[in-house]
Design goal:
It contains eight helices and eight strands, in the order ββαββββαββαααααα. The protein is α+β, with helices and mostly antiparallel strands and 377 residues long. The strands form two sheets. Strands 2-1-3-4-5-6 form a six-stranded antiparallel sheet. A two-stranded antiparallel ribbon has the order 7-8. The longest helix is centred in the middle third of the chain and has 51 residues, at 202-252. Mean pLDDT is 79; it is low at 373-377.
């Protein structure tokens, strides 16, 4: 760091003083109480922020300003320290850049300023702080004060020997630490050797571990099957619930009064009528192809009407067959419903109520119905 100039405004005896420093050695001379020591104290105030308080402000004034211009790291800086009744601030400006202001920084100089001035107080290994850059007015010349050990440490710090000392001390500490660690590790190794000597055959343990791994794989496979069966069980329970719900819906449907014996009888009759219809169509075709030279007066009105009736019955038979096939296609077994049992139960209930299952009329004495199968039409 190279000092260029120092301007003092209202600092002790200096109202407006500027000191321009030259390269090399600078000596300040003057009569007693001219303010020579004040210049050193002003540098201390700027670079060390000592002394504290406001007692150094010129009598009759309320603001003191110290401006130090210096060169460091190849750049020129201006550092301003302002002290007033309501103002306590540092300002730092690098040439060609904006001003940085620092207020409310407490007792410590802002780190940004310390990094620029590079004049830190030396901290020795024993915790003692020594300022190599400033000395008091009545101190002995540089490196003449203090004990021999203090001067030795200061010279070591200046020459950089403190780094080697610190490294040596750290290496000694590491050596002792690692020696202790090696002893602990050796003790652990001895303990492990003793434990290994009392352990069973490693090969037998390895075989046992392989068997356990195999059992584990089998258990995983069984677990997969169990999960699959649980899924199937869940699906089955869902089907049961849906079946019960469907059974309830079927039971809620209105009861149909179906005479199954009559349906079967009419179906048989329709089958015979269909056969007769086919035969009549064949006869009619043959009659149409006959060539009768003799004029015969035959009335075909009745046979024609009969054929039309047979065709109508054939259509009815086809419809009934479709209905019967639809009924037969219903799978009632999965809902535990049996048609014949339902029909039997239905007839029993009607008889219990005194109603004839066939004609749905009240049952009187001597009330008899005879079922005629394969009735000729």
């Amino acid at each position: 760091m190279k000092l260029i100039s120092l301007h003092l405004e209202n600092y002790q005896a200096h109202v407006d003083t500027t000191i321009d420093f030259v390269d090399g050695f600078n000596v300040i001379i003057g009569p007693t109480d001219a303010g020579k020591s004040s210049i050193i104290r002003a540098l201390l105030k700027v670079l060390r922020d000592t002394p504290a308080g406001k007692g150094f402000i010129h009598t009759g004034e309320d603001t003191c300003t110290l401006t130090l211009t210096f060169e460091n790291f190849g750049a020129v800086y201006t550092l301003i320290r302002t002290v007033a009744a309501s103002k306590n601030e540092y300002s730092l400006q690098k040439a060609g850049e904006a001003v940085q202001s620092f207020a409310s920084f407490g007792r410590e100089i802002p780190r940004e300023i310390l990094d620029v001035i590079s004049m830190a107080v030396v901290q020795l290994e024993n915790g003692e702080a020594v300022d190599l850059h400033f000395s008091d007015q009545y101190d002995l010349p540089f490196m003449m004060a203090g004990t021999a050990s203090l001067r030795s440490r200061l010279l070591g710090r200046i020459a950089g020997l403190h780094v080697l000392g610190s490294a040596s001390i750290a290496a000694s500490k590491d050596e002792r630490h690692f020696g202790t660690e090696i002893g602990h590790v050796n003790n652990e190794c001895d303990q492990l050797r003793k434990e290994i000597e009392g352990m069973p055959d490693v090969a037998a343990l390895e075989t046992h571990v392989k068997t356990l791994k195999q059992h584990l794989e089998e258990a995983k496979a069984l677990n997969t099957k169990v999960e699959y069966l649980q899924k199937i069980l869940g699906d089955l329970n869902a089907i049961k619930v849906a079946g019960k719900q469907l059974a309830q819906e079927v039971q809620a449907l209105p009861q149909l009064d179906i005479d199954f014996s009559l349906l079967h009888s009419q179906a048989a009759q329709l089958a015979k009528l269909a056969q007769y219809s086919v035969s009549l169509h064949a006869v009619n075709s043959q009659l149409n192809t006959l060539v009768i030279p003799v004029e015969i007066n035959v009335d075909f009105t009745a046979p024609t009407d009969l054929i039309k009736r047979i065709e109508s019955l054939q259509k009815m038979y086809t419809q009934l067959t479709t209905i019967d096939a639809g009924i037969a296609g219903i799978d009632l077994s999965k809902y535990d419903i049996k048609v014949y049992e339902a029909e039997d139960t239905w007839q029993k209930e009607l008889k219990a109520l005194g109603i004839c299952p066939t004609c749905k009329q009240p049952i009187a004495q001597g009330h008899v119905h005879v079922e005629i199968k394969d009735k000729d039409v």
